[in-house]
Amino acid sequence: LAVNLQEIRECRKEYPDHVIIGSMMAPIEERVWKDLAQQIAESGVHGIELNLGCPHGMCERGMGSAIGQVPEMVEQVTRWVKDSVDIPVFTKLTPNITNILWSAEAAYKGGADAVSLINTVNSIISVDIDNMIPEPVVDGKGTHGGYCGSAVKPIALNMIAEIARTPETKNLEISGIGGITTWKDAVEFMALGSNAVQVCTAAMIYGFRVVDDLIDGMSQWMDDKGYTSVEQFT
Ligand SMILES: Cc1cc2nc3c(=O)[nH]c(=O)nc-3n(C[C@H](O)[C@H](O)[C@H](O)COP(=O)(O)O)c2cc1C
């Protein structure tokens, strides 16, 4: 934590014009969420995202998607953090739930300024049938994990559209995530209600330069269509 907070302070100094959103995850204990949120806020972030969706070994420890799958906990955790900081709070949702509106509405009731979605989709990608181990195999072992990248884009688009068009949740800002690789993907996410987008897998595969391509491509498309602001097509 000390290293992370120091790095945030350094990034703030180095890139004063950039927005930094801190991401946090903790077990379901009020003091822990509040203390951590305050420390992150004091490091100078512009907003805090609550990771309630990680399925990578965290749910087994009562964190991540274990919290995100219970709407009452989503509401509670969001309220704890909202009560302890005065910067925008993004509640990040898990797609591993029957109805995304349950958790989006819970985040809204807890006071979230925005929801971020989707986190990864629980999956086992394949099985090594010679050794009978789920893949990828590391040191002779494998397990389930979170699916992401282009394959999850249709799931994300649908969940975002549901939140954006439902009266109880439509006032939430949406940070859209899930398979965004090209500027066209980003425009599609915004067309269905995202106010901003995030990229994870594409940056891991192609490097951070994909962000410049997203910006260039979207700017060109906006000029071609005569849009002067993103609000005009969100
Ligand atoms: C290796 C890996 C690590 C991740 N770690 C986190 C994390 O620490 N916190 C979080 O909120 N999401 C985490 N995610 C989820 C991503 O932020 C994102 O929600 C998801 O991968 C879907 O977007 P994408 O298709 O652009 O990757 C991780 C995803 C991957 C693949």
Automatic annotation (TrEMBL):
Q: From which domain of life does this come?
A: Bacteria
Q: Name one Pfam family in it.
A: DHO_dh
Gene3D superfamilies from the UniProt entry: Aldolase class I
What EC number(s) are associated with this protein in UniProt? 1.3.1.1
Keywords from the UniProt entry? Oxidoreductase
Q: What class of enzyme is it?
A: oxidoreductase
Q: Name one GO cellular component term.
A: cytoplasm
- MF annotations from Gene Ontology: dihydropyrimidine dehydrogenase (NAD+) activity
Q: Which InterPro entries match?
A: Aldolase_TIM, Dihydroorotate_DH_cat
The record's catalysed reaction(s) read: 5,6-dihydrouracil + NAD(+) = uracil + NADH + H(+); 5,6-dihydrothymine + NAD(+) = thymine + NADH + H(+)
Annotated Dihydroorotate dehydrogenase catalytic domain ranges read: 5-222
Give the PANTHER family listed for this entry: DIHYDROPYRIMIDINE DEHYDROGENASE [NADP(+)]
What does the subunit comment say? Heterotetramer of 2 PreA and 2 PreT subunits.
Query: So what does this one do?
Result: Involved in pyrimidine base degradation. Catalyzes physiologically the reduction of uracil to 5,6-dihydrouracil (DHU) by using NADH as a specific cosubstrate. It also catalyzes the reverse reaction and the reduction of thymine to 5,6-dihydrothymine (DHT).
**Name recorded for this polypeptide:** dihydrouracil dehydrogenase (NAD(+))
Q: Which organism is it from?
A: Thalassospira lucentensis
What lineage is on file? Bacteria, Pseudomonadati, Pseudomonadota, Alphaproteobacteria, Rhodospirillales
